[in-house]
Predict the 3D structure of the following.
Amino acid sequence: MDEMSDTNDSNDSMVALSIDPKAVTPIIEKKIQSAIIAALGDGDEIIGKMVTLALNKKVDSRGEVNSSSYYNTYDFMELLAEKAIRKAAEEALRDWLKENAEKVKTVVLKEIRKPSRQNSIAKALADGLEGAIKYNAINFNVTLDGNK
């Protein structure tokens, strides 16, 4: 029995196993990636949850997450929807105004020509001019030329 154990000891010391790390590293990385993916579960479900969290994230009025939770009062998705709706409404109104510019101009001129409106416009201009003169906000010269 002693002879056999001496033989095993000498065989163990004579065998050297060398494994190239470049060959093993990709295998280990793939195993780790597989384990992570398996731990995550259903990819569609995970993505759905992440999207829901991102869209429901509380943000400030600029759509940013503020360091103070006091300002994070909007859901990100609601803020995006509101901005998109406002933009679409502005574009629609601009288009409508371009198409109806002459009609709008006619109605505005009709409104301005009303005596009550002319009085209020004249009063606003006079009050503004009086205030500007009173507080020296404007300077103007008046020249009277008797030859004209």
About this structure: The CA atoms of residues 88 and 94 lie 10 Å apart.
